[in-house]
Write a structure and sequence with these properties.
The structure holds 2 protein chains of 2 kinds.
Chain A: E1 4-7, E2 10-13, E3 19-25, E4 30-38, E5 45-51, E6 57-58, E7 67-73, E8 76-81, E9 90-98, E10 107-108, E11 112-116
Parallel strand pairs in A: 2-11
Antiparallel strand pairs in A: 1-3, 3-8, 4-5, 4-9, 5-6, 7-8, 9-10, 9-11
Chain B: E1 9-13, E2 18-23, E3 31-38, E4 45-50, E5 55-56, E6 61-64, E7 70-75, E8 84-92, E9 106-111
Parallel strand pairs in B: 1-9
Antiparallel strand pairs in B: 2-7, 3-4, 3-8, 5-6, 6-7, 8-9
The chains are: A mainly beta, B mainly beta.
Chain lengths: 117, 112
C-alpha cells in the first residue's frame, strides 16, 4: 500500500516550452503533497507544499510563477514548469502524506527526470 | 529545524550488520527521528521512525540514545540492494507533521 506514481518518468523539451508533471497517490488519499528538486550529486531540495484545494506554499527562492502547482483532488497534484530553460533540468520528485495511519510518513514517487535543451 | 550530522559515506560487506549513526543534538522534545533512504535514480523510501524507544520493523532497527541527541539505524544483514543514501531527519510530530528537510545523508556502499 501507499504507492505514489509520477508521469512522465523522463521528459526532454525545448527551451521556452512548458512541461507538466503529474503525481498521483494510487491507493490512499493525499491530504498534503510535496514537490522536491534534486540536482546531480546533491540532496533533495523542497520546492513547495500543497494541500488539496488550497494554494501551494513555496519555499524561499522558488518562483511560484515559474513552478505552477495544482492539487485539485486528494489523489492528484501537478507541477508545471513554465518557460523551461536548461538550468531547470533536474530530477523532480513528489511525495504525499495521507490521513491516519499514513500521516506520520511521506511516500515518494519514483521521480521525473527533466532535460531542457 | 534541528540540524543533523551524518558520516558522508560508509562501507559494508554483504550479509554483515551495518550501523549508521546520526547526531541531532538540537532536536526538540516533539521531534520524531525519521530515516529515509534513496536508491540510485529513485525517489526516497521510508525506512523507520521513532520518538524515544528503540523501534524495529522488517527493514531495520532504530536505536535512540537516552538523551535523544543521537540515533543509529541498524541494518541487520546488509544486501546489495541496501546500497543507497541514508537520510536521518528530525520531524515535528503531533497534529502538525511538518515537512521533511533532507541533509546530505550517508552514502552506503555494500560489497559482495
Amino acid at each position: 500500500g501507499a504507492v505514489v506514481s509520477q508521469h512522465p518518468s523522463r521528459v526532454i523539451c525545448k527551451s521556452g516550452t512548458s512541461v507538466k508533471i503529474e503525481c498521483r497517490s494510487l491507493d490512499f488519499q493525499a491530504t498534503t503533497m510535496f514537490w522536491y528538486r534534486q540536482f546531480p550529486k546533491q540532496s533533495l531540495m523542497l520546492m513547495a507544499t500543497s494541500n488539496e484545494g488550497s494554494k501551494a506554499t513555496y519555499e524561499q527562492g522558488v518562483e511560484k510563477d515559474k513552478f505552477l502547482i495544482n492539487h485539485a483532488s486528494l489523489t492528484l497534484s501537478t507541477l508545471t514548469v513554465t518557460s523551461a530553460h536548461p538550468e531547470d533540468s533536474s530530477f523532480y520528485i513528489c511525495s504525499a502524506r495521507g490521513l491516519y495511519p499514513l500521516q506520520e510518513t511521506q511516500y515518494f514517487g519514483p521521480g521525473t527526470r527533466l532535460l531542457v535543451l | 529545524d534541528a540540524k543533523t550530522t551524518q558520516p558522508n559515506s560508509m562501507e559494508s560487506n554483504e550479509e554483515e550488520p551495518v550501523h549508521l549513526p546520526c547526531n541531532h543534538s538540537t532536536i526538540s522534545g516533539t521531534d520524531y527521528i525519521h530515516w529515509y533512504r534513496q536508491l540510485p535514480s529513485q525517489g526516497p523510501e521510508y525506512v523507520i521512525h521513532g520518538l524515544t524507544s528503540n523501534v524495529n520493523n522488517r527493514m531495520a532497527s532504530l536505536a535512540i540514545a537516552e538523551d535523544r541527541k543521537s540515533s543509529t539505524l541498524i541494518l541487520h544483514r546488509a544486501t546489495l540492494r541496501d546500497a543507497a543514501v541514508y537520510y536521518c531527519i528530525p520531524l515535528m510530530g503531533g497534529t502538525s507533521y511538518g515537512k521533511l528537510t533532507f541533509g546530505q545523508g550517508t552514502i552506503l556502499t555494500v560489497h559482495p
